[in-house]
Design brief:
heterodimer; A: alpha/beta; seven-stranded mixed beta sheet; five-stranded antiparallel beta sheet; 17 strands; 28% helix; 30% strand; B: 457 residues; alpha/beta; five-stranded parallel beta sheet; binds flavin-adenine dinucleotide; binds iron/sulfur cluster; binds FE2/S2 (inorganic) cluster
Chain lengths: 289, 457
């Protein structure tokens, strides 16, 4: 079984959007869930959040950032290519309820998984305040779509090229100290950002959720590679999560576990780039030449 | 009574095989196979058959072999065993058929497993005969899980003329046969041939379908006339000791899946990485522990040791695998138990604090209970620790399965015919028994298939 790529484009440098034909996955998908894909027979299984899905047209949208070998190879695929595997939906859906005011925080490519939540929370009748951040204006994704699904949108950039000059946490703190009664915060982005959000909300009594992204293999609870420590208890992020109470997450452990394969990842990308540069190419059907 | 010597199994030398993933046991030659078959004295009241969980007519297939009629032999075997090439390799014959063989009283029993393997390989080499199917019944059956239980159920159900769809969570079919048991014990092209056979029978394969997520059992009930659940016991147990989440601690499932299913031993040709340790500790004493230890050795570790809390005698792994592991240089730290995994400031594993054990009075299982020896704490250095202390059923299958009853161990409860608490939904294999054997899972799949045939009328 293979999966067609219906659409593919680069949203901003190194961040790509793909629509994959997978009607059964689309039918079952809910906000907060993810898929695991494999490009080809030699490929690694990598998890990506469901950024959007369309039941009528039978597709699932993924948005990914070029990080290492697999995401760089994925970035080179076109609508002529197919994916070997596309498994999902996986993980627990977000518990979307009518609460009142929900603050959604997305950092970098983390805006992608925040978008379906904005839609879902709004549909459930909440006031949605979104805070989306990027290193600079040209790396900011999904601004228009987030505006369409939010009551208020704040933008932050690390370099001040757009919106607030600073971090998403600055706005979170402003909101919490202001008059707005916030009922829930959901933050998704790089681990460092999620840890910072967990720090900022500490003194306030507001439920705060983060979506964890440890290294995964099967995504079904079979390997335990994705284990994270929540309030001193071991959980498998792929089946118990990926969303957890931000205050209870052992971020240091998670971040160190994310670095476990750094030497191997460096080797993989080096081998891959050498193959791509060589005269014969990598033979994987990529369009690098 | 005449005495005869059991034909030895040709094998790769230990010092060579410790560095490759090729099959260890090479299989009998035709001459050896016939000579070994000749040893069978064709008992009037053959005990061996009683030891076989699926009652293969052992004397009959061996008799065909004596006449070099290997086609006749494999037909006989396949009357009750649909995975002989697998079972001939991995069945614990020493506690099943061979344990009851009459020759075993005076000398070594007939090597029934090796003979079974020879016949199966003989058939695979020639190409398996186009399978017979009954006329279509127009009934639709879903099989969830593609391990030995699912494969044998699917095969029998398809032969009976039903339209069978097989859902598998992973991207490849075979269950533990493909992700767990390593290449050097069970070559993956053999498993693939068994899977291809199911395909030839017209079974519609749906890899990458996690039931409980993409569809629930409640939903499957609307689409299918009957369902078989063979989802295994794939949830890894951890000890619950300090340091188990440190970098470098793997469950055996993760370690073996990376190596076998994802082919990490061929990294970077294959993309999935694995940590190659210098000093590897594997905690546990079963087949899973032996497999993990021998994989770690083949990846290039300097020293691999098994840490097991009882003594050599109680090691639950097959004797043959224990001997193979010892020959390859795996160190056995017996009567030893880890109490804490140690790590450095970067949260990388540096070793395990262990205690020595002694065996006390027998417990409920009849095995002598291991007790800690006071003051025996010591540190075993390690940069990789693999936990192979058992698995439990994965609860995912219960999501959206209204009325599916389970035991306190999380296994599915079935009646003697393999039917669950939901009429028309059968289950079998490790999901019912907890982690067991390939042959018992296969037998349960066959039983459930016949129950479903009856149910569908
Ligand atoms: C539930 C979940 C949802 C995710 N959603 C998205 C998303 O929507 N968009 C997106 O761009 N990224 C997402 N990620 C991260 C994405 O999976 C990794 O960036 C990707 O696996 C990197 O693979 P690589 O080969 O390109 O890079 P590598 O060089 O292999 O790795 C780069 C870094 O990515 C992480 N990583 C590596 N392998 C895995 C793996 N198998 N599983 C998880 N993380 C890994 C490690 O921290 C590593 O250091 C998600 C991760 C998880 C667990
Ligand atoms: C490393 C190892 C070595 C072993 N060695 C031996 C040996 O030498 N001899 C022996 O006899 N036995 C051995 N065993 C035990 C034997 O492999 C198992 O008892 C047997 O495989 C059980 O078969 P099964 O079909 O019940 O389940 P499994 O083989 O576990 O197959 C279950 C399948 O169901 C799939 N699945 C699970 N949940 C879902 C879901 N929700 N939706 C869709 N699919 C799902 C899984 O991905 C898996 O592929 C070993 C086991 C291991 C782990
Ligand atoms: S018990 Fe041994 S000798 Fe007797 S029939 Fe069986 S295999 Fe042959
Ligand atoms: S990814 Fe294997 S258990 Fe979560």
């Amino acid at each position: 079984m293979t999966y067609n790529i219906l659409e593919k484009y680069e949203m901003v440098p190194t961040v790509h959007l793909m629509k994959i034909q997978a009607p059964d996955v689309a039918k079952a998908a809910k906000a907060g869930q993810f898929i695991i894909l494999r490009i080809d027979e030699n490929g690694e299984r990598i998890p990506l959040t469901i950024a959007d899905f369309n039941v009528d047209e039978g597709y699932v949208t993924i948005i990914f950032q070029e990080m290492g070998k697999t995401t760089k190879q994925l970035a080179k695929l076109t609508t002529d290519d197919k994916l070997q595997d596309f498994v999902g939906p996986l993980g627990q859906p977000s518990k979307i309820e009518k609460l009142g005011t929900v603050v959604l925080v997305g950092g970098g490519v983390g805006v992608a998984p925040i978008y379906p939540q904005a839609k879902a929370y709004r549909e459930a009748g909440n006031k949605v305040i979104s805070i989306i951040g990027a290193r600079s204006e040209d790396l900011l994704i999904l601004e228009d779509k987030m505006r369409a699904e939010s009551d208020e949108v704040y933008i932050t950039t690390d370099d001040g090229s757009k919106g607030h000059h600073g971090f998403v946490t600055d706005i979170v703190l402003n909101l919490l100290e202001g008059n707005e009664a916030v009922d829930r915060i959901v933050a998704i982005g790089p681990p460092i950002m999620m840890r910072a959000v967990a720090g900022v909300v500490e003194p306030f009594d507001v439920e705060t959720l983060v979506s964890l992204n440890p290294v995964m293999v099967d995504g079904t609870g079979m390997c335990g590679g994705c284990r994270v420590l929540i309030d001193g208890e071991t959980k498998f992020a792929c089946v118990d999560g990926p969303e957890f109470d931000a205050r209870k997450v052992d971020f240091n452990l998670m971040m160190s576990r994310l670095g476990l394969y750094r030497p191997e990842e460096a080797e993989a990308i080096e081998t891959y780039e050498k193959e791509c540069e060589s005269e014969t190419g990598c033979g994987s059907g990529c369009t690098c030449q | 009574m005449h005495m005869s010597v059991r034909q030895p199994m040709p094998a790769q030398p230990a010092d060579v095989r410790a560095h490759n993933f090729k099959e260890v046991a090479l299989g009998y030659t035709q001459k050896q196979a016939v000579a070994e078959a000749e040893r069978c004295i064709e008992c009037e009241n053959p005990q061996c058959v009683k030891g076989c969980p699926v009652n293969i007519d052992i004397p009959a297939f061996i008799k065909s072999m004596k006449a070099s009629d290997f086609d006749g032999a494999i037909d006989k075997i396949k009357e009750t065993n649909s995975l002989p090439a697998v079972c001939g390799r991995v069945c614990p014959q020493e506690t099943q058929c061979e344990m009851y063989c009459i020759l075993g009283k005076k000398e070594e029993p007939v090597a029934i497993g090796r003979l079974e393997r020879f016949c199966a390989d003989h058939e695979l080499e020639k190409g398996v005969k186009a399978p017979q199917r009954a006329p279509s019944t127009g009934k639709r059956v879903a099989v969830v899980g593609s391990g030995p239980a699912g494969l044998s159920a699917a095969s029998d159900l398809a032969k009976a003329g039903h339209e069978v769809t097989m859902f598998e969570a992973l991207h490849a079919a075979g269950g533990v046969l493909i992700y767990g048991i390593p290449e050097f014990r069970l070559p993956k092209d053999i498993v693939q041939k068994e899977v291809d056979y199911i395909g030839q029978l017209g079974v519609n394969m749906k890899p990458g379908y996690v039931i409980g997520r993409i569809k629930t059992i409640d939903e499957l009930k609307n689409e299918f006339d009957a369902i078989f659940l063979g989802t295994g016991a794939g949830l890894p147990n951890f000890m619950g000791i300090d340091g188990e989440n440190l970098n470098g601690v793997y469950s055996a499932n993760e370690f073996l899946t990376r190596v076998n299913l994802m082919k990490a031993y061929q990294f970077p040709e294959y993309d999935t990485p694995i940590k190659i340790g210098k000093h590897v500790i594997v905690v546990g004493g079963g087949n899973v522990a032996m497999d993990a230890a021998r994989c770690a050795l083949r990846l290039g570790a300097d020293e691999v040791s098994i840490v097991y809390r009882r003594s050599d005698e109680e090691l639950p792994a097959r004797r043959e695998e224990i001997e193979h592991a010892k020959e390859e240089g795996i160190v056995f730290r017996l009567l030893t138990n880890p109490v804490k995994i140690l790590g450095d400031e970067n949260l990388m594993v540096t070793g395990a604090e262990c205690v020595k054990m002694e065996l006390g009075e027998p417990d409920d299982s009849g095995r002598r209970r291991p007790q800690v020896i006071e003051g025996s704490e010591h540190v075993v250095d390690a940069d990789i620790v693999i936990m192979a202390i058992g698995t439990s059923p994965n609860p995912l299958i219960f999501e959206g399965a209204e009325g599916l009853e389970s035991s306190k161990w999380g296994t599915i409860i079935v009646d003697e015919a393999g039917m669950t608490s939901i009429n028309g939904v059968c289950a079998g294999g490790d999901i019912v028994t907890g982690a067991a054997t390939v042959i018992s899972a296969m037998g349960a799949g066959k039983l459930a298939a016949s129950t479903i045939n009856e149910y569908l009328g």
